[in-house]
Amino acid sequence: MDLFYASELCFKIAVVVYLVGTLLYLLYLAFRRVPLGAFATRTTLVAVSLHTGGLVFRWIEAGIGHPPFTNLYESLLFFAWGIVVFYLVVEWRYKFKAGGAFIIPVALGAMGAAVLNPESGKDIHSLMPALQSHWLHAHVAVAALAYAGFVAAFGTSLMFIIKDGTPKRWLGFSSNLFMAFMLLISDRFNILTHRVFTLNRIVEGQVTNKLITFSIPGIILLIAAIYFIIAAVLYLYRVEGDPEKKGSILGIPFGPFVTLLGTVFTAGALGYLVFTAFNHENVALFGNPFKIIILALVFFVGTASFIFDLLLPKIKELLPRAEILDSLTYQIITVAFPLMTMVIVTGMVWAKVAFGQYWQWDPKETASLITWIIYTVYLHAKVSLDWPPRRTAAIAILGFASVVFTYLGVNAIGTGYHSYAGF
Fold this sequence. Notes:
Order of helices and strands: HHHHHHHEEHEEHEHHHH
Radius of gyration: 21 Å
Helix content: over 70%
Structural class: mainly alpha
Largest sheet: 3 strands, antiparallel
Distance between the termini: 25 Å
Number of strands: 5
């Protein structure tokens, strides 16, 4: 069997098995049945085994000097693999199965975004000269593990925030502002300045830099962003524990209802773009994949925020004690932070070899430095300043938002030396 075909088959099957594992973890979180948790772990182990096999097959097919993380397609696959491996180690070490319901969906989303990429974007191509370096292997591999650790820390921090009794208004306010910001940067602020959304054009079977402008999705996404901003304001002034459901629509408080509207509009724009791409040969849906991944991310966060708001009391009861979650977040970050430091150092050495300078203030370099500083503040606040756990958990969540911006947002806004990381 052709190794390239075998790798793609492994990835496709792995996505399905990850989906099953995610559902099992969610069921375990809901019902706390030990057999469900054990089955979820075994299912995830099967998925990550298939995932690993796919990466190995692709690496063998490409050659030893061409590791499977040199473009965005491969990077997403490797990033998802790192998340799952990191989580399974944490689960084994701390007997912490509840985290699977929060962390495995992130890996599933990264895998899904990669597998949905059209076949032409999955081909193995020769590496550009700047990527033909052993420093690439160290830099990107360590980055995937560092980011995976920060994803795990985000999951435990989010669970801590929920368990610790943080008011819904702050959870809703933060998540809605995040979604509005991600929508606005998804197409370099075109939905705000021009009320349009752009996709790359295909000419003679090749994706080009020429753009096709879509006015309807641009307007829909702008409305969605406005809804998220309105929802953030509504959450900020929300009165907790309203037994008579005052200020609600169909029994749903105004904040989550408007969040749902923003999520529906985001899904509508994404569906329109998918429909257009599949019905017009000259439209490249993944010509700039960051845009589509960001829209899918906003849809996922919006859906999760709405469900969490309605089921928050029940979810809170099912989570481990807040002290355990706070300690686990700290331990994970103490592992991920040195890895992030190595990412910056190996990147600097690689830049010196490839471009003649250690640091060039490339957008992704700058964003990575900001991420490193945020987690430095977290560790300093935790160790030296003795800040309360709720405040340090908020820093960890902010750090994850910076990771998302570094990984996706920077490429959506502009270009730089890392712009090779596209499909």
